[in-house]
Amino acid sequence: MTAQPWMRNLAVVLTLTALAGCGAMIAQNPPGKLRPVNAVADGADERVMLKGHDVVAYFTQGRHALGSPQHSSVVEGVTFRFASAEHKALFDQSPQKYLPQYGGYCANGIAYGIPWGGDADTWRIDDGKLYIFGGAGSKAAFELDVKGNLALADKYWKEEVEGSNSFIQRSKRLVFRVPHYKSGEELAKMVAAAKKP
Q1: What pairing do the DSSP bridges indicate for beta strands 45-49 and 68-75?
Q2: Which of 60, 42, 59, 187 is nearest to 126 (CA)?
Q3: d(CA 172, CA 106)
Q4: What's the pLDDT at 95?
Q5: DSSP H helices in 66-181
Q6: Could you read off the pLDDT of 22-63 as tens digits, one per residue?
Q7: 71: part of which helix (H) or strand (E)?
Q8: Half-sphere exposure of residue 61, counting CA atoms within 13 Å on the CB side?
């Protein structure tokens, strides 16, 4: 008797997840309301959002900037680092204003129910909200239909991802894909077609 393809895929995903180690699982799944998050362990901090990039800089300087452990704040067990004391003060006055959407994961991935990726240098602000992407290709694919992709990402974040364990959710949606799933290759072709005159 041979295993079904989805069973083999699930076994591979679960094995890779186990090999990823506990550090990432702890960093991405804090005990508070802010979970899962695109965070890493760094020094004494178990959960540093966006590898220490300053979430305020996107709004005040229009760019990504690395923060410093010297200027940091903790929200729901997640550490945010800032490039200056002024940025820390702005964040402390109104953290919700600066929190990246979807826990800082790639917004395009969340449109497929997959909390994965999210590079601090690939981002956009829409309607006063910060969105992070897993690279230029993910951002370009998302921008093919911003309104539709935001609706999908909001839906999957609220119905499946928010409050879940990132590794379990990721594994589930890599095996049991959403009906509108497109591979990276398919998305790249769509982006290329959209750029043609």
Answers
A1: unpaired
A2: 59
A3: 17
A4: 97
A5: 85-93, 95-98, 107-110, 136-142, 146-156, 166-175
A6: 567 778 988 888 999 999 999 999 999 999 999 999 999 999
A7: strand 68-75
A8: 14
- Rounded CA-CA distance 32/23 in Å is 17
Q: String of b and e for 43-80 (b: at least 16 CB within 10 Å)?
A: eebbbbbbbbbbbbbbbeeeebbebbeebbbebebbbb
Phi then psi dihedrals of residue 43, to 5 deg: 60, -130
> With a threshold of 0.90, does the pTM exceed it?
no
User: What does the pLDDT average to over 128-155?
Assistant: 97
pLDDT reported for residue 17: 53
The type of residue at 110 is I
Distance of CA 48 to the CA centre of its chain: 13
Residue 139 reports pLDDT greater than 90: yes
Q: Determine the residue type at 161.
A: V
Provide the 8-state DSSP code for 106. B
Mean pLDDT of 117-129: 96
Largest CA distance in the chain: 64
Structure tokens at 39: 């965070």
Q: Contact at 8 Å (CB) between 107 and 147? A: no
